Amino acid sequence: MLVPGAGEPNFDALDANPYRSAKQRQEWEVKALLEKIQPELISLNPNELGQVDHTTFQQRHQDRVQALGFDPLAKDRFTPKYKKKGRSSAGNIERRKKQVAHEDQRDIIRQTVEDKMKMEKERQEKEKKKAELSGQKSALDRFKK
User: What InterPro entries is this protein classified in (predicted)?
Assistant: First the structure.
């Protein structure tokens, strides 16, 4: 007599225990998550992870300010006025916000670029004066422009 399903079970060989209960499954998931976490992060004080490392945040902010040439967090965001006759659609409001933000950024970036250009020009003038004062010609001077 043949009975369907009475043969050897073909369960997933990759699964540790296919017949586990819900509680066993939950415990296994917690254990698997704890294995993923770095050992330094596991502590008995639950407030330790919620704290912000202010020194690294300030350092990252300082690096960002130097890279961009302006402080993006220094000024309040622009809030556009409400306009009549369908001109205050969501897309138009966002466009006005971006336009004002980009104008401010352009002014600041333009100013920093001008400062850098002035510094570069002064440095080149100093190098020219030093070269003129030295007066000695080198064999490599012919390659300079």
Answer: BING4_C_dom, WDR46/Utp7
